[in-house]
Write a structure and sequence with these properties.
This protein has 374 residues and is α/β, with parallel strands linked by helices. It has a single domain, classed as TIM Barrel, CATH 3.20.20.140. The chain has a five-stranded parallel sheet, with helices on both faces. A four-stranded parallel sheet has the order 6-7-8-9. Helix 4 runs parallel beside helix 5 and helix 13 runs antiparallel to helix 14. The chain is globular and about 55 Å long. The protein starts with 21 loop residues before the first helix and ends in a 19-residue tail after the last helix. The protein binds zinc ion (ZN). Zinc ion binds next to strand 1.
């Protein structure tokens, strides 16, 4: 989960409208997307949350219209509290089926997402047995594929605010109830409360079971990224914006081709990828350094974004056009945890879609006397 910090006094509002440009809009909508950083709990539409709350007799403090008003998230605690509300109303098999199906169709295939590794957080659904979560999610995943062609797998998220022992217990459950759809584990919630070194044992267990390993590092120092690579055995990193603060680590990650799953809109709101100024400066630095970046939308409705919009903001802020934007998809196909046959078919499908997508004209030269468009 992305973790917005407190709003700074005098700082402009966090919502950043981008200019309307029909050619850019057509381009970003048509491009195929491969999604490696999208949380199921963060991908539930406000209307669905309200309906599930009513079904279970829960009365949320906010209605559908302002449930996800991210300008009102005062701090990380506020964000996580909303997240907890959402997680607490997804309870039975039917609920998990519904949220999974909706996130993969309206929140995925409708944006030309062709493949997603969903970040699923069992600790976010207290009291719900892991096998029940899996039953609903897998049913939703299969129905979404049957109706739209989207492929999806699951990455099981450890809540890093809990103990290392609880993380081991979760991985033991994942191994005990092993299914093909579960391809790896992740680590999320507030990094400041859960340094990665706490989870070495859980990650080693996952590694021995042949599971892929990733973890969030958004607010932490570059040293956390070293821990992910060297002690947790991660083959990719979620966010990882602080890698560029450390030239030696950056050079290493370039040489090793470590993928970084970045989320422009949510991280800009949380002030991790560009100081909340809409410049997405760290993502540009990472791309320019030669790091292997993928783009996704994290908790899309919670941050007023979607898979298309995250590419749109990069097109406007960084001037990226078809080939630069498509490179995020090629990186994600290389980084995903499908086998080589699966990757090859995904690549062929995406290549055909990119070839059928006309490029948008390059952005006009910027006038240094003007402010950066927002
Ligand atoms: Zn996240």
């Amino acid at each position: 989960m992305t973790a917005p910090t407190g709003r700074l006094p005098g700082h402009p509002p966090r919502s950043r409208p981008v200019p309307t440009d029909p050619a850019v809009d057509a381009l970003v909508a048509a491009l195929p997307k491969v999604s490696l950083h999208c949380h199921l709990i963060g991908a539930v539409s406000p209307q669905t949350v309200v309906e599930l709350a009513a079904k279970h007799g829960v009365r949320p403090e906010r209605g559908a219209a302002d449930l996800y008003d991210h300008d009102s998230y005062e701090d990380l605690g506020e964000f996580l509290r909303v997240l907890d509300v959402v997680g607490s109303v997804i309870r039975d098999v039917e609920d998990f089926h519904r949220v999974t199906y909706e996130s993969l169709t309206a929140g995925g295939a409708d944006h030309n997402v062709v493949y997603r590794e969903i970040q699923l957080s069992p600790p976010g659904h207290p009291g719900v047995p892991y096998p029940r979560i899996l039953e609903g999610v897998v049913a939703g995943l299969r129905d979404a594929r049957a109706d739209t062609g989207i492929e999806a797998r699951l990455v099981i998220g450890i809540n890093r605010e809990r103990s290392g022992a609880e993380a081991v217990e979760l991985v033991e459950q994942v191994v005990e109830h092993r299914i093909d759809e579960v391809v790896g584990i992740g680590l999320d919630y507030a990094e400041v409360n859960g340094p990665p070194g706490r989870f070495v044992e859980a990650y080693q267990l996952a590694g021995r079971a042949g599971l892929g390993r990733t973890a969030h590092s958004e607010s932490g120092p570059p040293g956390h990224i070293r821990t992910l690579l060297d002690e947790l055995g991660c083959s990719r990193v979620d966010h990882g914006y602080h890698v560029v603060d450390d030239p030696e680590l950056t050079a290493r990650c370039v040489a090793e081709g470590v993928p970084f799953n970045c989320t422009p809109v949510s991280s800009d709101i949380g002030r991790y990828s560009g100081s909340g100024d809409g410049t997405h400066a760290r993502i540009r630095q990472m791309v320019d350094a030669g790091l292997r970046v993928t783009i996704d939308s994290d908790d899309p409705p919670m941050f007023g974004t979607d898979p298309t919009h995250d590419l749109r903001v990069l097109a406007h802020a960084l001037g990226y056009r078809r080939d630069e934007l498509a490179s995020f998809t090629w990186n994600a196909i290389d980084a995903c945890w499908l086998d080589e046959t699966g990757k090859a078919s995904l690549r062929a499908r995406a290549e055909a879609m990119v070839a059928a997508t006309p490029d948008a004209p390059p952005p006009p030269p910027s006038d240094p006397t003007e402010e950066t468009p927002r």
